[in-house]
Design goal:
By secondary structure, the chain is α+β, with helices and mostly antiparallel strands. The chain has 3 helices and 3 strands.
Length: 163
Amino acid sequence: MPNTPKKKNQNTVEKNILIHDKLNYQSHESNELSNLLNTLINKKKSIENNKEFKLNLTTKKNDNENNISNEIIKNNEINMYKRMISESIQKKFYNFSHYVGKQCNLRIKLAPDGTLLSVTAISGDYDLCQAAIIAAKLAKIPKPPNSDIYEIFKNTILNFSPQ
């Protein structure tokens, strides 16, 4: 009989060790699982942040493309209005052939409706400048297409050089 209690004790100890090992194993598995879940969550957040960054980058790129397109349109409007002013003055400019090879710079000031407020010679051939001033005063300058174009041309310098 003395052997029996020893076996019971030994079995209990072995069971306790097994239970302890099993709990440690489960705890270890739980920690690994928790670490794995945290890693996945962090990766997901990182991917979402990268998507946000890419979206912002794409938006900025599109904004830049829009700005470039707007600049091209604005430059076209500027050139078109400059051509309209030039053509309206050229219609009133006579004897081009007398001034070939000469140059004149005029400062013109316009009202928002295109009315010429003032015109003055800044530099260049005196005779050409006088003829250009007369032509500018006689010309019917068209109204600027918008306020941005008006702001550019309300006080500007025009170069005359008949060819």
